Amino acid sequence: MHTGIPRTTSMGKVLDAGANVTDTLPNSEEAIRRGEYAVIRSLIRVLEGGVEGKRQVDNVIDRCASMQNLREAIATYRNSIHRQPDEMKREASLSFFVEYLERYYFLICFAVYIHTERAALHSISSGQSCFADWMSARPELYSILRRLLRRNPMGALVCSSPKSSSMKNVESTDHRPCEMGVVAAMRDGEVLGSQTVLKSDHCPGCQNLTLPERVEGAPNFREVPGFPVYGVANPTVDGIRAVVRRVGSTKGGRPVFWHNMREEPVIYINGKPFVLREVERPCKNMLEYTGIDRQRVERMEARLKEDILREAERYGGAIMVIHEAEDSQIFDAWEHVNPEVVQTPLEVYKCLEAEGLPIKYARVPITDGKAPKSSDFDTLAMNIVSASKDTAFVFNCQMGRGRTTTGTVIACLLKLRIDYGRPIRMQFGDVSHEEMDSGSSSCEEAGCDGAARMSTIRKARTPKELQHAFGIDDILLLRKITRLFDNGVECRGILDAIIDRCSALQNIRQAVLQYRRVFNQQHVEPRVRRVALNRGAEYLERYFRLITFSAYLGSEAFDGFCGQGESKMTFKTWLHQRPEVQAMKWSIRLRPGRFFTVPEELRAPYECQHGDAVMEAIVRARNGSVLGKGSILKMYFFPGQRTSSKIQIHGAPHVYKVCFLVPKYYLCTDGPTDVTDAGCWAVLRIVHLVRSRLVQETNFRTRKEARGQSLCTSAVLLELALNQVRRGLVNGHSAMTMVHCRCWWLSGVVNVASVRNLLLKLDLTQDRDRIISSASCRPTEPDDVSELKPEPDPR
């Protein structure tokens, strides 16, 4: 029986099949009865104690099966989906299948919870966590359920079984199976379970040929110019030593802080890294660990090591692994192992540290293709702040591309902030002319480089150029988040300069535009466009988070961490206090298409009605912190605005009166700032506020008089008068005389305390004493007293 995977020895030689043939492989029906669905296999692989938890749940289910056996019910609905010809009944069966399988999933989780929290549950103290809290602390469990069951219910029907139910266990002369499919089907470890394989992490072509430097055993090694920051793919043990020597560190020399950004479990066998994969998809990452923290992924790697050693005892001290050939074909091989040559990454770096190398290791798990969480930013910040000034920072992920590049950008931002304080700025000696120009973050999609970006903003484009001018700044969300922060423009400019420095393998900013370009190509098949949209949204969120992090570093919230002030607030707390930022981030996930669709004016040929070319150039050239690119100032009033038929006042639109016991007047404005000065005085004159004694409510900013008196117009008139003083139209004495003339018939002399408080609030310190002094004197009666005397009280 040939599966298409050449059988080899650990030396790479293809074996002839032996004569020993047995039939001990599990078939599909047995796997169904045992409940070995893909979502359950992933659960017991990730969840520590998952195998024992499933065994306990299965035992209880069998004991409580007098009315229904949960596993058998799941199998019944699964078979009904395959055999039921009626569409509606098939959908109903699928619904019950998903519901029962999810119930089985949570029962296993609950069994593990009871086992792990047994001591706390038996204690009288109320400090133990409830099941809901326990689940919330393990977001990877919800990730498995969402990815493998809820998003694709039909895919959850697949059970653990060999590719062919008739497959035989063909053994070689040394009593080892000859086929990886057989070995994978018979595996029963907690992590190295059924239908899983160990694949070599290095493959042909993983080294990027455009990089100028090569380090043996450490693909894609590069240094960020001007910073003690380095990036690399997942290295071998010898590759780690080579990188440490390359950065100038020897025994007792320059310290190295190594950050492993991988979320998936990795194991070292004979000094080479291997990663856990599914046998049917050996070249794809298993995306079931989203949200897992450092402790759990390192415990998972420790359990994987135990599974390997246990399986090696069964096969005479060897473990079957797979490699990738030059032509991308997969072949298997036997690796001879013992407890000394099987190591977790944590054990590898501890051994190197024990050898005397000045290396420190940290695991910061980040999902492949995703943006770091706010807690990940805080972890990296604390690690870099705690290191000495001469420390070299090395980052690695699988290929040294996405997550590694993000880590190097974060590290460079932190180094600038820690070494030079606020505001964050690139030192003049470290910035080339090209990088200064490239910091405008307006990279054009039509292939322009960083050096041309600043010039494209400063000069007006021709109509033909404008059709292809969609850049990163044309995404409205990024303009909004930049304007939101006081230091947004400066911090984003520094971020873009850092991104350009770290772009040897990938430019995070340009990646957004590359995926946007694919998404807007109408001739591309829908599946490709959908993938481009999803990946582009992830990169947009990553760039968005980096903008917010650079603004955080540029604020005083970070001062306390680097000894530059007393304020000490984590990035996670800082974000929590800004719900508007969180709302913007969620808008990317909810409706990513609106940020990637090219505006119609950039699609269609340029026409005159699209706007004046000079105005377009001015608007696009704006670079203020609030009045930024694409922003305009619109007049509050507009042609055709509704006006009252009886009361028409220039500068105060739509004034109308409601006839009731107490006269009420309304304006279609939000306050006095939306009415011109002339319009405001005209409204006061029309509604006779200067002749009324009381005003129950207005849209103006009124104040209560001292001693609990009713609201009156003195505060309104004071503000209007003080506005005249501020604008230099009248002096303080004249303004107070004007106010007193209008308030004389209302409440007598204006309260001095109210005047003082109002002056302090309006920050009018000039002539304050003289104004207050004049307020204490009763003014002379104005010339036209008849216009100010109140009408008789109708009550």
Description:
The chain starts with 19 loop residues before the first strand and ends in a 20-residue tail after the last helix. With 795 residues, it is of the alpha+beta class. Strand 4 and strand 5 (229-232) form a beta hairpin. The protein has 4 domains: 28-157, no CATH class; 187-403, Protein tyrosine phosphatase superfamily (Protein-Tyrosine Phosphatase, Chain A, Alpha-Beta Complex); 430-621, no CATH class; 656-787, no CATH class. Mean pLDDT is 75; it is low at 1-24, 162-167, 431-469, 604-610, 669-673, 689-714, 733-751 and 774-795. 44% of the residues lie in helices and 8% in strands.
Quickly give the CATH architecture of the largest domain. Answer: Alpha-Beta Complex
Strand content: 5-15%
Sum up the overall morphology in one term.
globular
Coarse structural class? alpha+beta
User: What average pLDDT do the residues reach?
Assistant: 75
Q: CATH H level of the largest domain: which superfamily?
A: Protein tyrosine phosphatase superfamily
Total count of domains: 4
User: Could you list the spans in which at least 5 consecutive residues all have pLDDT below 50?
Assistant: 1-24, 162-167, 431-469, 604-610, 669-673, 689-714, 733-751, 774-795
Largest sheet composition: 5 strands, mixed
Number of strands: 15
| Name of the level-1 CATH class of the largest domain | Alpha Beta
Helix fraction bin: 40-55%
- Looking at the structure, the CATH topology of the largest domain is Protein-Tyrosine Phosphatase, Chain A
Radius of gyration: 36 Å
For the biggest β-sheet, the strand order reads 4-5-13-6-12
Cα(first) to Cα(last) distance is 107 Å
- Tally of individual helices: 31
Pfam families: PTPlike_phytase
Organism: Cinnamomum micranthum f. kanehirae
Region (Disordered): 775-795
InterPro entries: Prot-tyrosine_phosphatase-like, PTP
